[in-house]
Amino acid sequence: MTEGNAHLLEGGCACGAVRYRMTAEPLFVHCCHCRWCQRETGSAFVLNALIEATEVEVLKGAPEFVPTPSESGRGQQIARCPTCRVALWSHYAGAGAAISFLRVGTLDAPDRVAPDVHIYTDSKQPWVTLPEGVPAFPGYYRAQEIWPAESQARYRAAIKSA
Prior knowledge:
Number of strands: 10
Largest sheet: 7 strands, mixed
CATH class: Alpha Beta
Distance between the termini: 25 Å
């Protein structure tokens, strides 16, 4: 997951109009290699820190939530800076507004948050080398099988209280 004190991590958009702070450790960190994420980010993958939406404190500005299609067909709401349009986090239909998929690249210290899992590796770019010791799946996976028990409990509580 992370290397100590993720709750001290802050981040924001490119222009500085929106700033946020993580007030807890991420539940789990995905490195998604699906073609949809590649297209959406213009990169080889996206790194998302899953965290309860209540644990993302907006410090400055207000993100604009933009409805965006997703591969599942159920869509997502992407929190974007209304000025520079950088994507800060998403809310996918499956977890709704209870869970934020925070874009690790928008953190001031993104190197402090490493992926816990690589997903949709069947469509990863062939030049991307996956690290040893990190679970990897050709598609999605069952969270119950690899998430820490504490993260599973936090996730269930967040969904229940939403």
